[in-house]
Amino acid sequence: MLDGFEDPYNFGHTVRALYAAGVDGLVIRPRVWTNATGIIVRSSAGASERLPTATAESPVAAIADLRRRGIMIACAADDRRAVPVDEVDLSGPLLMVIGGERRGLKRATLDAADNLVRIPYRRHFRASLGMTAAAAVLAFTAARQRERRTED
Fold first, then answer.
1. What is the pLDDT of residues 21-47, one digit of tens each?
2. Do residues 85 and 29 lie in contact, with contact meaning Cβ atoms separated by under 8 Å?
3. Domains of the chain
4. CA dihedral 85, 89, 91, 92 (to 10 degrees)
5. Which among 15, 29, 85, 130 is most buried, taking Cβ atoms within 10 Å?
6. Which residue, 74, 52, 54, is CA-closest to 63?
7. Of all helices (H) and strands (E), which one includes residue 99?
């Protein structure tokens, strides 16, 4: 789930990265971007038309619904409770919630998660990655873990 994206170009790039990583679907909040559809399709290289997308009124609503279905919830967070993404098993059914660059995720969303994950930086870096880069790292990490699980 992507929450808090504002720029249709960034949204399209993020959808492209998620699709390339093999993500099965996307959840977003309802949004009217009547003039931005072409931008999203072009910036996603067409992935926005291939990746199944659902809407949810809020991340907390999506979390509650998917948890009832047995899906693990992980939120990307710059929070003292967050653990490095490589230390969490992301190989099973998963909803990964990623916040936008400006505000990140709300406390209620973080509190509803099963796991809080962070991307460990290799240098001191006070700023976080943008939504596209973070989504790509997290999605490809989950894909790599799933590949290992099927090989075992």
1. 999 999 999 988 778 999 999 999 999
2. no
3. 2-151 (3.40.1280.10)
4. -120
5. 15
6. 74
7. strand 94-99
